[in-house]
Amino acid sequence: MHGNWVVDRPNRRAGEHFGERMRTMGEAVRRETIHDAARKQDWTGARRTACGTDSGRVCRGDWALEYGDIGGMSKSMESLTTVSIRRRVPAVRSGWRYRYVLKPLLFLLPALVLYAVFFVYPFVYTLFLSFHEWDMISPDRTFVGLDNFRQLLHDETFWTVLKNTVRYVLMTLPVSMAIGLTLALLTESLIRGRAVYRFVFYLPVVSSIAVIALVWSFMYNPHDGLVNENLGMLGIRGPNWLSQSGTSLWAVAIVGIWKSFGAEMLFFISGLKSIDRGLYEAASIDGAGRFQQLVRIKLPLLSPVLLFLVIVGIISSFQSFALIAILTKGGPNNSSNVLVYEVYQEAFQYFNVGKAAAISIVMFLLVAFVTVVQLRLSRNTVHYQ
């Protein structure tokens, strides 16, 4: 029952009968409210506890009857003027903390446990090891403070590896993003066969990195490899790609580009599909060609995708390990060595865990710094609408 009930008195008997029913309902509501107030040990008054008109409390019970004074309601219809029944406001139960705090945490607990075990704990333990000297054999860990970090400052190998890592990022990221964007534009311009081309270009992304590295190592063979054979058909003598200092890092970068541009293509396709087609129609009416639409419409609206791919690409390039380990093993003479492979060598070949942990912390700080700078610089260049 809701709304306002206004009772006239054309018939005294009918009015008394209606008043008796309303009085009975009011007494029932009052008894329920008094019982609820007593159970909650709240003695501020049944009417105030029920409706909160004086104390500001939330209404209790399924229905709350509003009137001047239930106790003063007479049995006759003459004293009844206006009775209104309204729906109560949901009460805040005593178990709200369980419902809104503990219960969501219980659902998040498995993910939080996995995150703590596989991310938080390894990071904290790596930070701990970076201040110690340990060979993974002795049970004792010697605290050396910042000596591992000071050692990196004077280590020529570390600076060579860091330079190689930066070069690898600059070799792979811009080229793979340019190829991915070009393929996305060409694929979306097709009328038929889009799914086939997407599958073909995305296949290297889901292929095993070990298999890819082995196949490319055969292709880079200086004597009968496919790459040098094709160059020989053009009259070019191919180098020993994986054994020369000037070409080893480029050879690894080519494989990295080939493996990653398919994923970037899919991200660009997703971004292109989110652009309103009406913008292209309006630009065509204004006389804009395809190149102008690309520069003025597509690229600005693809800026969030570009920012995401740049950040993820830098992180992925800094973490490159498998290609280096299988193709070149960091050689020759550290010409293709990168930070992650250097961490592996220091920890599991030279058993210098403290220095390996220090390199890991430095790499983490570098990636975090680059990411923060990119996010700050992109505030005025990234358009989300």
UniProtKB/TrEMBL annotation:
Pfam family, one: BPD_transp_1
TM segment ranges: 105-128, 168-187, 199-219, 249-269, 305-327, 347-373
Protein origin, superkingdom: Bacteria
Domain ABC transmembrane type-1, chain residue ranges per copy: 162-374
Keyword Cell membrane: yes
Principal cellular location given in the protein's record: membrane
Keywords: Cell membrane, Membrane, Transmembrane, Transmembrane helix, Transport
InterPro entries linked to this entry: ABC_transporter_permease, MetI-like, MetI-like_sf
Keyword Transport: yes
Protein's membrane topology: Multi-pass membrane protein
Localization, UniProt: Cell membrane
PROSITE patterns: ABC_TM1 (PS50928)
SUPFAM superfamilies assigned to the protein according to its UniProt record, in alphabetical order: MalF N-terminal region-like (SSF160964), MetI-like (SSF161098)
Family indicated by similarity: Belongs to the binding-protein-dependent transport system permease family.
Protein name as catalogued: Carbohydrate ABC transporter permease
Organism: Paenibacillus hodogayensis
